[in-house]
Design brief:
Elements (H helix, E strand, L loop, with lengths): L4 H28 L6 H15 L14 H22 L10 H24 L5 H10 L26 H16 L1 H12 L2 H37 L7 H21 L4 H10 L9 H28 L7 H23 L7 H9 L5 H13 L4 H36 L5
Helix pairs in contact: 1-2, 1-11, 2-11, 3-6, 3-10, 3-11, 3-14, 4-5, 4-6, 4-12, 5-7, 5-14, 5-15, 6-10, 6-13, 7-8, 8-9, 8-10, 9-10, 9-11, 12-13, 12-15, 13-15, 14-15
Length: 420
C-alpha cells in the first residue's frame, strides 16, 4: 500500500525534529549555561512551535487518541534507560541507615502524596474514585533527568564520588518510585474494572506482593549474572559498539524476562544496575556513559513530543480547576509531604526543604498514564482530564524546577563546601 504525501511529509518532519534535538544536545548546554532557559523548556517549546507553524507536522494525539500505543512504547523505553543510568550513577549501596531519607520519601511522602492528590482529583476536579487514584499514581514518580544539576554525578565525572545528601536522595528516590508507582496505577485500574469489593484481595496478592517480589529477585539475580558475564568478557569495554550493545541488550533482557515472569521490570532494571561486582568497577564510567547517551536521545524526543501534544490540544480539558491542581501539586503538595516525611531525620532543615521542593515530575508520569489509557478501564472523558492535569504538572515542573534547581543546589553547596 502506497503512503500518502501527507504521511511522508509527517515522517520527514519528525526526522528533522529528531535531528535538531540531537544536534541541540551536543551544542546547546554550553550556550544555555548561566541563562534562564533550560533544554527541557526549549525542547517543549520547539515541539509546540513545530506543530503550530509547520503544516505537515502533527503531534501525538492522546488521552484517549490514536497515538496512545506509540506514546506508551516510547515512554516505556525512556524510563527503562533512565533507570539504568540512575542505578549506575549511585555509589552508595542500599542500607537501612545510608538510604534513610530515601526510605522515608518512599514510605511516607509517596503514598501520602498519592492520597492527597486523589482527594484533590475528587473534590476539585470531580473525578470518580478510580480516576482520582490514577491521577495520584501517575504523578507519584519523580524525575531528576529533567534537571541535570540535581542528579548524582555519574562515575568518571569531575565531581567527588560521594555526593551531597540532596542530590543522592533525589536520585535514589527517582530510581525506586518509578517502579513503586505501578501498584497504585494497577489499583486504579482494578477499581475501574471490578470495584474494590471484588478486586482488593487480588490487587494486594498479585500487584503488590507478587510483582514486587519477582521484580526484586529478578533484578538482583540477573544483575549478578550479567555482571559476571561482563567481567568474563571485559574486552567489550575496548569496543564502543560492543559496550553499547551489551548495555542495551542487558537492559532489555532484564526488563523482558521480569515482565514475562509477571514482575515489575522497572524495579528489576534499577536493581540490576545497582547490583554490580567491585571487579568491574573500572568499567562503570563507560557503562554509565553509554546509558546516559541513550537516555539523552530519548528524553529529547519525548520532550518535543510533549510540546507537540500541547499544540494538538491535550490541555483543552484543563480548566482553571485543573491548572490549580497542577500548580498546587508542584508548589505545595510535594514540598509539604516531602518535608513531613523527613520529620526528625538527621538532615538539616534546609536539606529537607530542598529535597521536598525538588520532586520533579516528568517521563514516568507519561508512561503510567499511557499505560492506563491503553488499558481502557477509565472512561474517556475522565482520562482526558487526567492527561490535561498531568501534562500541565509536567510543564509547571519543567519551568519551575528548571529555573530553580541550579540556584538551589549551588546555594546548598556553598553552605556546605565540603560536599560541593
Amino acid at each position: 500500500m502506497l503512503r500518502s504525501e501527507e504521511d511522508i511529509a509527517l515522517e520527514i518532519g519528525w526526522l528533522f525534529l529528531a535531528g535538531v534535538a540531537l544536534l541541540g544536545m551536543a551544542v546547546l548546554p554550553r550556550l544555555l549555561a548561566g541563562r534562564p532557559l533550560t533544554l527541557p523548556i526549549l525542547y517543549v517549546a520547539i515541539g509546540w512551535a513545530a506543530v503550530e507553524f509547520v503544516e505537515p507536522i502533527r503531534g501525538p494525539r492522546v488521552g484517549p487518541g490514536p497515538d496512545d500505543g506509540l506514546v506508551l512504547a516510547v515512554s516505556e523505553l525512556v524510563v527503562i534507560i533512565s533507570l539504568v543510568a540512575v542505578g549506575l550513577s549511585l555509589e552508595r549501596r542500599p542500607g537501612l541507615v545510608s538510604w534513610g531519607a530515601v526510605w522515608r520519601l518512599l514510605a511516607v511522602a509517596m503514598p501520602l502524596g498519592i492520597g492527597l492528590m486523589a482527594l484533590a482529583g475528587q473534590l476539585v476536579l470531580g473525578l470518580g474514585g478510580a480516576a482520582a487514584i490514577l491521577l495520584g499514581a501517575v504523578l507519584a514518580p519523580t524525575d531528576p533527568v529533567l534537571a541535570d544539576d540535581i542528579q548524582v554525578p555519574g562515575p568518571g565525572d569531575e565531581e567527588p564520588p560521594e555526593p551531597d545528601e540532596v542530590r543522592f536522595t533525589l536520585t535514589a528516590e527517582a530510581g525506586l518510585n518509578d517502579s513503586l508507582a505501578f501498584p497504585f496505577t494497577h489499583l486504579a485500574l482494578v477499581l475501574a474494572a471490578v470495584g474494590w469489593s471484588d478486586g482488593w484481595v487480588e490487587w494486594v496478592a498479585v500487584d503488590v506482593v507478587q510483582r514486587l517480589a519477582i521484580g526484586t529477585v529478578a533484578g538482583l539475580v540477573l544483575g549478578r549474572l550479567l555482571t559476571s558475564m561482563l567481567r568474563r568478557f571485559a574486552h567489550v569495554a575496548r569496543e564502543g559498539a560492543g559496550l553499547a550493545a551489551f548495555v542495551a541488550g542487558a537492559t532489555l533482557t532484564v526488563y523482558a524476562v521480569t515482565e514475562l515472569l509477571h514482575g515489575y521490570g522497572f524495579l528489576a532494571v534499577f536493581l540490576a544496575a545497582l547490583s554490580r561486582h567491585d571487579e568491574i568497577e573500572e568499567l562503570r564510567p563507560l557503562l554509565h556513559a553509554v546509558a546516559d547517551q541513550f537516555e539523552t536521545v530519548l528524553v529529547a524526543v519525548i520532550l518535543i513530543g510533549i510540546g507537540a501534544a500541547v499544540a494538538e490540544g491535550v490541555l483543552d480539558p484543563l480548566g482553571w480547576e485543573g491548572a490549580l491542581v497542577a500548580a498546587g501539586g508542584v508548589l505545595v503538595l510535594r514540598p509539604v509531604v516531602g518535608v513531613v516525611s523527613l520529620w526528625r531525620s538527621p538532615l538539616p532543615m534546609r536539606e529537607r526543604a530542598a529535597i521536598g521542593f525538588l520532586g520533579i515530575k516528568g517521563l514516568g508520569t507519561v508512561f503510567y498514564l499511557a499505560y492506563a489509557t491503553v488499558d481502557g478501564a477509565i472512561p474517556g472523558n475522565e482520562i482526558g482530564l487526567v492527561w490535561a492535569v498531568a501534562v500541565a504538572t509536567i510543564l509547571t515542573s519543567v519551568v519551575v524546577h528548571g529555573l530553580t534547581a541550579t540556584p538551589i543546589v549551588d546555594r546548598h553547596n556553598q553552605r556546605d563546601p565540603q560536599r560541593a
